[in-house]
Write a sequence for this structure.
């Protein structure tokens, strides 16, 4: 580890840490092919910070999609926020997803909406009136440094600005769990470090964070739990 | 570059490169207010963050669908108008014919035709349900033959039958069995024509025309529904990434279906308005040109048979209603298509 290593939010033991995600013997295969993930067991607790890593194609994004339940496991049990997801309807899953934020490497901002509208999207789909969240969105955009880019479409934002807009969108609904899929993959090392510090700050406010990355130097900057995927198995290094 | 920025949650970060807050701080209040007002006006103009279109209008082949819906509404409107014209003409024929019965008294050697006419009129006048009896004078009967035989001829030597027209009371269904029996006994050269054969044929023809019109309407609406279903699937394919993002930020299928429904309802209303207005203009022009040519002899005969080619107010309302139905079909089909497609996805 490097000397200027950062520390994620410490678990004091005084806080009641709830289990946000629990995978038990989860396996996934596409069609009749070999299993991509085998006997995956792990938990993610509130206030925790962890990296999900492994070589390209190891199944990091697939694991995140399983957490988001946009993919269903072929075997095993997944519990989200204390609920077994197997029996949940699509509507109930949508409500669970509202407690999670997701950041993608390719940002996935909607180009026909402004930055403000993109960030407000999770609240819009919840049916909230604009008057109830407008100040909140503006404050968050200013916080991530996009206060003067609110009314422009994403196409004219730089890569770093897009990533910050995507992070703001993931955070606006104040999720209990933030999932980031290669969030630093499309930015330079300097901005990658700044984004990492942003995630650490978020974690200190109580949001559990999972960052999927294969950027080892970046991970070395933080003393955090690592979930390592290799050949379909998950190894945990606390 | 700003030194630090703090959110209301108490998080302070200093890693963000951009320094908007310092720029904002330096921005005069008036400029800032102006910028906010511009932003507000921009959003009120259709870019409202809360109520703005989640689906990009330009990514969907909306213009082609609007054109298809306009054509379908125009055709459906023409059909609805035609059904109205035929139904009204049929009602006129039926009403006029059903309320008139004709007695025909043929001249027979050895019988006084004038006495027979009077007797027949007397018998008919005593029948229950007959409101009025009108005896056609000989000259009137001969005048009826003028279109076929020409004017100025002496028809006194010809055995031209005499006519007695009976007007029936509205809603009455007189029993002519008794009258027929009396006529057979006392005026055997009289014949009773209640137009039933004609009425039956006309009604069958009109009913068939109305049924064909309704079938065409159903076909047009079905074709519209299919076109919308295909367009919706195309739109979903073109916006797959948007749908994916919406799902990831917690949108339920009903929300996404609602967005598509709103989008297609807008397209449907636009297309239906164009098609409906064109159909109404068509009938207005048709009515005006019918009035223009109404004085020609041919037009008089056509009008006698088919009535006036003028759509009643109810006909125009039907065309407008067709537009609303087409819009509703567009919205409902798009919602159902999105639901079915999404429910088929994991």
């Amino acid at each position: 580890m490097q000397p200027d290593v950062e520390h994620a939010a410490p678990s004091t033991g005084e806080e009641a840490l709830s289990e946000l995600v629990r995978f038990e013997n989860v396996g996934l295969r596409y069609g009749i092919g070999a299993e991509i993930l085998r006997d995956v067991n792990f938990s993610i607790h509130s206030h925790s910070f962890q990296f999900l890593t492994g070589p390209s194609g190891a199944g990091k994004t697939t694991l995140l999609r399983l957490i988001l339940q946009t993919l269903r496991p072929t075997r095993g049990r997944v519990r989200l926020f204390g609920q077994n997801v197997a029996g949940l309807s699509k509507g109930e899953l949508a409500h669970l997803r509202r407690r999670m934020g997701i950041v993608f490497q390719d940002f996935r901002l909607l180009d026909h909406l402004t930055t403000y509208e993109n960030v407000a999207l999770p609240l819009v789909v919840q049916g909230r009136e604009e008057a109830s969240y407008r100040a909140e969105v503006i404050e968050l955009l200013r916080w991530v440094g996009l206060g003067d880019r609110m009314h422009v479409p994403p196409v004219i934002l730089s890569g770093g600005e897009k990533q910050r807009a995507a992070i703001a969108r993931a955070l606006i609904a104040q999720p209990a769990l933030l999932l980031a899929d290669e969030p630093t993959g499309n930015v330079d090392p300097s901005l990658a470090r700044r984004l990492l510090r942003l995630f650490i700050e978020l974690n200190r406010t109580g949001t559990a964070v999972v960052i999927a990355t294969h950027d080892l130097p970046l991970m070395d900057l933080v003393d955090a739990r690592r979930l390592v995927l290799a050949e379909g198995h998950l190894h945990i290094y606390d | 570059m700003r030194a630090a920025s703090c959110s209301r949650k108490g998080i302070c970060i200093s890693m963000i490169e951009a320094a908007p807050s310092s720029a904002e701080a330096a921005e005069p209040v008036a400029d800032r207010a102006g910028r906010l007002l511009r932003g507000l006006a921009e959003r009120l103009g259709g870019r409202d963050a809360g109520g703005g279109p989640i689906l990009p209008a330009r990514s969907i082949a909306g213009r082609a669908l609007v054109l298809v819906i306009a054509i379908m509404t125009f055709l459906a409107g023409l059909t609805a108008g035609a059904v109205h014209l035929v139904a009204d003409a049929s009602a006129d024929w039926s009403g006029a014919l059903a309320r008139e019965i004709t007695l025909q008294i043929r001249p027979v050697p050895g019988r006084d035709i004038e006495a027979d006419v009077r007797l027949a009129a007397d018998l008919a006048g005593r029948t229950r349900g007959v409101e009025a009896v009108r005896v056609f004078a000989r000259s009137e009967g001969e005048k009826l033959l003028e279109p076929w035989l020409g004017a100025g001829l002496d028809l006194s030597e010809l055995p031209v039958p005499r006519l007695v027209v009976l007007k029936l009371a509205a809603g009455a269904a007189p029993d002519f069995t008794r009258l027929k029996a009396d006529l057979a006994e006392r005026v055997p050269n009289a014949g009773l024509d209640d137009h039933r054969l004609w009425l039956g044929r006309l009604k069958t023809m009109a009913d068939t025309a109305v049924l064909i019109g309704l079938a065409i309407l159903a076909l047009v609406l079905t074709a519209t529904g299919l076109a919308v279903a295909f367009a919706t699937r195309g739109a979903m394919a073109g916006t797959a990434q948007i749908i994916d993002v919406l799902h990831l930020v917690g949108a339920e299928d009903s929300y996404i279906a609602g967005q598509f429904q709103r989008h297609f309802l807008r397209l449907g209303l636009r297309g239906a308005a164009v098609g409906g207005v064109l159909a109404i203009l068509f009938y207005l022009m048709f009515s005006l040109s019918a009035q223009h040519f109404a004085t020609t002899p041919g037009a008089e005969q056509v009008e006698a048979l088919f009535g006036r080619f003028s759509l009643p107010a109810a006909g125009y309302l039907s065309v407008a209603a067709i537009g609303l139905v087409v819009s509703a079909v567009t919205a409902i089909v798009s919602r159902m298509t999105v639901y079915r497609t999404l429910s088929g996805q994991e």
Notes: Chain A has a mean pLDDT of 88. The radius of gyration of chain A is 18 Å. Residues 114-174 of chain A form one domain.
